[in-house]
Amino acid sequence: MRPLLLFMLFFVGSLNVVGLQAGEKKPLPIGDHRELFVDDYLIGKMKNVSLRLHQPVDEGVVLKFDKPWEGLFCGYCTIIKDGDLYRAYYRGRPQAGADGDTGEVYCYAESKDGIHWTKPEFSLFEKQGFKKNNIILADAAPMTHNLSPFLDTRPGVPESERYKALGGTMKSGLVAFTSPDGIHWKQHPAGTVISKEMVPFPYMFDSQNVAFWSPVEKKYISYFRVFKDKLRRIARTESDDFIHWSEPVLMEYTHRGDKSPIEHLYTNQTHPYFRAPHIYLAVAARFMPGRQVLTDEQAEKIGVHPRYFKDTSDAILMTTRGGNMYDRTFLSGFITGGIGAQNWVSRTNYPALNVVQTGPAEMSVYVNQDYAQPTAHLRRYSLRLDGFASVRADYAGGELVTKPLTFDGSELSINFSTSAAGGIKVEIQDENGKPIPGFTLADAREQIGNEINRIVTWKGGSDVSSLSGKPVRLKFVMKDADLYSLQFVK
After folding, report:
1. I need a surface site. Which of 389, 401, 433, 478 has the fewest CB within 10 A?
2. Which of 413, 405, 79 is nearest to 276 (CA)?
3. Domain spanning 57-384 has what CATH number?
4. Separation between Cα atoms, residue 418 and residue 357, nearest integer Å
5. Cβ(448)–Cβ(422) under 8 Å?
6. Which runs of E-coded beta strand occur in 129-241?
7. Percentage of the chain exceeding pLDDT 90
């Protein structure tokens, strides 16, 4: 009987592994995190539904680079929402020149709503005969080439270092700066904190080099530009104190489980998504060197600098959940060039760092456009909250079943939209796909409408606390509907 017993135990164990499917050896612990459908993380099976990338809505120019110390070559913008105040940082550069020379300054603008922006007048640096201007850092070459500030949210950070930044070129390495208020900056005594000697690649730092405090990894993370095999790539390094950094590793790319095409990415703009900080968004600038769109006549007509129309670029969306892998779920453009020759020159359509909330149901991403032209400006694009991508079902309908997961909460909230004829029903199954009584499709109330936060209900109500901590799957039966995100709430 002993061999038979061993066989039965093996057989039962095998059934459980089959129920979890290949690669699903244990349930995903999502807790009470908001999960977006920007990757395949939650997806177990899809039938007649697909992941759809959504394009942001063009909301127009919000900031013209029209001051004498700003000009055609403004770039490397950062947007920070600090409480009720929005801050914009960007390089001022009226004339072409070498990276990191003395002609570069860093400028500042602010807004109460992220839509209407003003340029405060400071008396910190006199430039071009102007004692009052919106310059917050000058005479600090080469760090003013690409200074990239962030609001340090690490618990216990000193007030004098509430803002931090990295800036510099290959010549200087990345130099640390701190500020108590985001306006008055000074170089950290440590000086260069990421040097070229630390980086195992032949060329680096000549782009916007971003950093942030990760509340999930509980470390400072920095992503910066390098070259490998003559391609613009991204490296990642981490630190416990912002001063001592680990040896950088090269970021790789995956697309739906396979290797992704490797393209030139000029800026990476990686940052934690403010509604789900365990997901790092990268609204990156995709650069297409030598892909000339404009004729000489078109270039002359719009007044673009003659060295800056031989290439073109747009913005793509990537994500990462830590480690050295970006998920390029969507290979197509996220923000592509608009109508008109001015949108198809070199180094235009470069996104600013950070996506921020600009309304009860709205978030915004900002894009540097009309580069190397007299009309250079920052433009705002809007999306619904969590609206980067969705699981989409057409009129014929379809289904999504998640991988096994565990959650912490008493209700399920979804961000979704349907047509008048469409809807979503949610079934909760056990980890092997068997519907759980009280939460079956027959029990589910159809969710119809368009809401950022809809609590899912069944005939017995919305309480799912009896399933909290237990392995389950979620089955979404959808018709003419988009599902943007889900979250278990208490």
Report:
1. 433
2. 413
3. 2.115.10.20
4. 23
5. yes
6. 135-137, 148-151, 163-167, 174-179, 186-194, 210-214, 219-228, 231-239
7. 93
For 470, counting Cβ atoms within 10 Å of its Cβ (0-12 exposed, 13-18 middle, 19+ buried), the class is middle
How far apart (Å, rounded) are the C-alpha atoms in residues 174 and 308? 26
What are the extents of the domains in the chain?
28-54+389-489, 57-384
pLDDT at 9: 37
Cα–Cα separations (whole angstroms), residue 190 to 174, 186, 437: 11, 11, 61
Query: pTM of this prediction?
Result: 0.93
Across the chain, mean pLDDT equals 94
Amino acid letter, 387: G
Residue 216 burial by CB count (10 A; 0-12/13-18/19+): exposed, middle or buried?
middle
Architecture in CATH for domain 28-54+389-489: Sandwich (2.60)
Q: List the structure tokens of 315.
A: 């913005």
Q: Give, in order, the Cα–Cα distances in Å from 351 to each of 96, 132, 233, 269, 277.
A: 20, 28, 17, 8, 19
Instruction: Please compute the mean of the pLDDT values over residues 427-450 and round it to a whole number.
Output: 98
Whole-angstrom distance, CA of residue 378 vs CA of residue 213? 26
The CA–CA distances, whole Å, from 154 to 88, 248, 463 equal 21, 22, 35
CB 371 within 8 A of CB 350: yes
Q: If you search the block for the tokens 């799912």, which residue do you land on?
A: 464
